[in-house]
Amino acid sequence: MSSEMHNLSSLSITRGRYIDDGKHDDDGQLKRTGMQTLSCSSSCKFPFVLTVFVLHVGTWQHASAHIITTVIGSGVLSLSWCFAQMGWIPGVSTLLFFCVISLFTSILLTDSYRSPDPVFGTRNSTYMNAVKATLGMQQYKLCGIAQMGVLVGITIGYTTTTAISMAAIYKSICFHQHGHHADCHVSNNPLMIIFAIIEIILSQVPNFHELSPLSVIAAIMSFMYSTTGIVLSIAKIAGNGVGKTSLTGIPIGNNGLTAMEKMWRVLSAIGDIAFAFSFSFVLIEIQDTLKSSPPENKSMKKAATVGIFVCSMFYMMCGVLGYAAFGNDAPGNFLTGFGFFDPFWLVALANLCVVIHLLGAYQIIAQPIFGFMEEWARKRWPENRVIRKHYTMGSLEFSLFRLIGRTTYVVVMTIIAMLFPFFNDFVGLIGACTFWPLSVYFPIQMYIAQFNIPRLSCAWICLQLITVACFIVSLVAAIGSTRGLVKSVTTFKPFQSVS
Q1: Is residue 5 assigned to a domain?
Q2: CATH code: domain of residue 76
Q3: Which residues are 37's β-sheet partners?
Q4: pLDDT value for 29
Q5: Rounded Cα distance, 351 and 157, in Å
Q6: Which among 296, 273, 300 has a CA at the least distance from the CA of 431?
Q7: HEC profile for the chain?
Q8: pLDDT single digits (tens) 52-90
Q9: CA of 128: how far to CAs of 139, 149, 154, 463, 475, in Å?
Q10: Which range of residues forms the domain containing residue 95?
Q11: 337: phi > 0 → left, psi -120 to 50 → alpha, else beta; which?
Q12: What is the Cα–Cα distance from 268 to 178, expressed in whole angstroms?
């Protein structure tokens, strides 16, 4: 982007002004036309001809793909374990609760993309900007702490989950080649490093607007591994019958399970389910990829409804069928619970889909972090040439600051993942921390402020009751997950994670 374009964009965002030249939206950015062209010039060093690929973007369908890519992630892998801790009735009820709340607050949040008017107001290109425009600077700072903390946590969780799935692929092939009694254990650390190297390359994609092809691929992968897990569950049930299940999950006394340990596990499971529905913290960023006609809030409401409905349907099938297949012995990652033997290729394929999906989901989660870091640096050192300078290599735009900053971030997150590779407790804690502030509190408070809901009115009281109830749910889930994480840390040796 040239300096002139950057200045125009900055003026448009801060003052709501733009040049009506037919090429730019009212925020100074190029119009979201709904078309994105990916091409390769004749200088591309490929043994085949890469033809021009035209992709329709900027529509609610692609926003749905972004949502599905973000929502159906590593959270789906732990749902059968959650059902085992909670049982049929609490498990199904909890999943439906988070589904309804996520849809309700997401619909409220879509109206905060423009302010003060949800259709004709000024664009807010990020979640944090929407909070600042509607609730003020103090709430903006709190939102920044919550959003950045959660996004950082999720990128760490994705690194751990990808290593587990990559290890599962290796073990499936190893057992097939060397027999069921072979020693096929593998260290997770080299796998995390491989994942980090790929993410460093992908992180050079400038922003959300360039991620649509990656998002579509990732969404397809999420469907594939979720469907594979469902098919394997059905096959296991057909072959071995329904596992030992109950209405309230693993009974107290089973394998020495105490009432206190049962409670901690249930609380951790609630956090896991909350994590499975986490995406509100990037909803505004996804909405910013939509073209302005029809109005973005109208398109985003449709995208959120479709995306959450599809995700909930898959979640319910994965949780119910996974619990039915494994019973109270359901593993933390239900794809690895099917063993690494026959059909080894199907288990390996499912885990490969997890890896590909998380490669894309990592970028969708990390983009707000990258954008925040780079915008802060531009404001802090406005004349610094390393920060401002962009280079062109053929059709690619290159930034030295982007390369250094984003590479450093990926490396640091990978090191932390090596130190704390605890899947269930970690995602539970992230989910608990994400759910209330970013998925409930800020969307509801922005809606109240934007539409001037009278204090102590019926609508105001109902919205505040939802806020309080969800806060209590998040608090107890966070306590349970923290306790499990502390327990795991006391028995784990850093950098020695093995699958």
Answers
A1: no
A2: 1.20.1740.10
A3: 54
A4: 57
A5: 16
A6: 273
A7: CCHHHHHHHHHHHHHCCCCCCCCECCCCCECCCCEEEECCCCCCCCCCCCCCEEEECCCHHHHHHHHHHHHCCHHHHHHHHHHHHHCHHHHHHHHHHHHHHHHHHHHHHHCCCEECCCCCCEECCCHHHHHHHHHCHHHHHHHHHHHHHHHHHHHHHHHHHHHHHHHHHHHHHHHHHHCCCCCCCCEHHHHHHHHHHHHHHHCCCCCHHHCHHHHHHHHHHHHHHHHHHHHHHHHHHHHHCCCCCCCCCCCCCHHHCCHHHHHHHHHHHHHHHHHHCCCHHHHHHHHCCCCCCCCHHHHHHHHHHHHHHHHHHHHHHHHHHHHHHHHHHCCCCCCHHHCCCCCHHHHHHHHHHHHHHHHHHHHHHHHHHHHHHHHHHHHHCCCCHHHHCCEEECCEEECHHHHHHHHHHHHHHHHHHHHCCCHHHHHHHHHHHHHHHHHHHHHHHHHHHHCCCCCCCHHHHHHHHHHHHHHHHHHHHHHHHHHHHHHHHHCCCCCCCEC
A8: 233 355 788 878 877 877 776 666 778 888 899 999 999
A9: 9, 13, 18, 21, 23
A10: 58-490
A11: alpha
A12: 38
Residue 473 lies in a domain: yes
Contact 27/13 with Cβ under 8 angstroms?
Answer: yes
CA angle 229–234–238, rounded 5-degree value: 145
Does the residue 172 lie in any domain?
yes
Asked if 249 contacts 84 with a C-beta cutoff of 8 angstroms, the reply is yes
In whole angstroms, give the CA distance from residue 397 to residue 438.
33
d(CA 367, CA 365) in angstroms, rounded, equals: 6
Tokens of 136: 């003020």
Q: Which residue has the tokens 């327990």?
A: 487
Give per-residue pLDDT as tens, 34-50.
433 333 333 333 232 22
- Confidence label for 407 from pLDDT (cuts 50, 70 and 90): very high
The pLDDT mean for the chain works out to 78
Residue with tokens 């608990």: 432
Assess contact for 414 and 200: CB atoms under 8 A.
no
Please return the burial class of 31, using the count of CB atoms within 10 Å of its CB with bins 0-12, 13-18 and 19+.
Answer: middle
CA atoms of 296 and 303, how far apart (whole Å): 10
Helices 344-380 and 137-178: crossing angle in degrees, nearest 10, is 150
Q: Tokens 């050192």 correspond to what residue?
A: 381
> How many other C-beta atoms lie within 10 A of the C-beta of residue 3?
10
Residue 254: inside a domain: yes
Are 272 and 478 contacting, i.e. CB atoms less than 8 angstroms apart?
A: no
Helices 296-326 and 212-240 pack at an angle, to 10 degrees, of: 30
CB 200 within 8 A of CB 398: no
Separation between Cα atoms, residue 319 and residue 314, nearest integer Å: 8
Cβ-Cβ contacts under 8 Å for 164 (sequence gap 6 or more): 188, 333, 336, 423, 499
Tokens of 489: 């840390």
Domain count, the chain: 1
